[in-house]
Amino acid sequence: MKTCLVLEGGALRGIYTAGVLDALQKEKINIDAIIGVSMGALVGINYLSNQPGRALRYSMKYCQDRNYIGILSFLKTGDVVNKKFAYYDLPNKLDPFDNETYQKSKIKLFCTMTNLETGKAEYREVKDAKKDTEYLRAGGSIPGVSRMVEIKNKKYLDGGMADSIPIQKAIDMGYEKIILILTRPIEYRKKEKKINLLARRYHHYPNFEKTIRTRSRRYNETIEKINKLEEEGKIFVIRPSRVVPIKLVEHNPKKIEEQYYLGKTDFESKKEALRKYLSH
C-alpha cells in the first residue's frame, strides 16, 4: 500500500512537524510521498535529504538574526522572511542542504501554493530542492507580510490560504495510507472574522480575496472531516498533545526547542499505534 505524509503549515509552529519527522525517520517506515503546506514543505525536504535535526538547528541559531526573519526584513525587503538569507544563503552556505541525497530519494514531495488569479491551490512536485526553490518560497509566503512570488507569469502566495490541510488531495491521488501531522491541538478551530482587513488588501484579485474570507470556514470543515476519517481508521493523525505558546515568527530559541521536542515525544507515544495502522 502506498503511504503519504500530509504536513500542515503554521510558520514556526511547524517545528513541531520537524520533531515528528526526525523521530519517524529512525523507524524506517516506507513513505511514498509528502504533501507539504508552507512550513510543512520547508521542513519536509529534510526528510528526503536525510538530515534530521537540521530544521531545529538553523531555526534556533538564526531565530534572533534580524536579517533572517522579522520586522527588519519586512521593512527592508517586503518579506517577513528574508528571501536571500532564508532560501539561498542558509541552504547553500550557512547550513548546507544535501540536495544530492534529496534527488536520489524515491519519495515524491509536493509543495502546496495558492494561485492569486484563481484563488485555488496548486500542488507542485519539488524534484530538485535548489532548482525548485521558488515553489517552496511561494508556498511559504504569508499574505500581508510577503511579496507575491511570480512563477512563469503566475502569482502565488501561501498554500495554506487555499488548502491548509490537503488531506483530500492525498486521497484523490490514490494514497491508501495517510499519516497527517497537524500543528494545532485537537480542540483548535479558526474564528470567523467579521471584518477581514487582510482580504481587503487583495481586492484586485477577487478569487484570492474570497479564498481568504472563506478560509476559517473551510479549515474548520476540514478538521471535522479529519476527525471523522480518524475515527473510522482511514487516516492516522499526529497533533500537539498540548499548546506551546510559540509565535508565528518566534525569536525565543527555547520555545522553538520545546515545540520540536513535543513533536518527538508525541510521535514516540503514538508509534506503536502507527505501525498497527500501517500493517492493516
How would you summarize what this structure contains?
The longest helix has 27 residues, at 253-279. This protein is α/β, with parallel strands linked by helices. The protein is built from 12 helices and 8 strands.
Topology:
Layout (H helix, E strand, L loop, with lengths): L2 E5 L7 H11 L7 E5 L1 H10 L5 H9 L8 H7 L5 H12 L4 H6 L3 E8 L5 E5 L7 H7 L9 E3 L2 E5 L8 H6 L4 E5 L15 H4 L5 H8 L1 H17 L4 E3 L14 H27 L1
Parallel strand pairs: 1-2, 1-7, 2-3, 7-8
Antiparallel strand pairs: 3-4, 3-6, 5-6
Helix content: 40-55%
Broad shape? globular
SSE ordering: EHEHHHHHEEHEEHEHHHEH
Instruction: Determine the number of helices (DSSP H or I, runs of at least 4 residues).
Output: 12
Category from helices, strands and their pairing = alpha/beta
The beta-strand count equals: 8
Largest sheet: 8 strands, mixed
Poorly predicted sequence stretches spanning 5 or more consecutive residues: none
CA(first)-CA(last) distance = 10 Å
Q: What fraction strand?
A: 5-15%
What is the residue-mean pLDDT, rounded to a whole number? 97
Rg estimate, integer Å: 18 Å
Description:
By secondary structure, this protein is α/β, with parallel strands linked by helices. The protein is 44% helix and 14% strand. It is built from twelve helices and eight strands. Strands 1, 2, 3, 4, 5, 6, 7 and 8 form an eight-stranded mixed beta sheet that branches. Helix 1 packs across helix 12 (253-279). The longest helix has 27 residues, at 253-279. The mean pLDDT is 97.
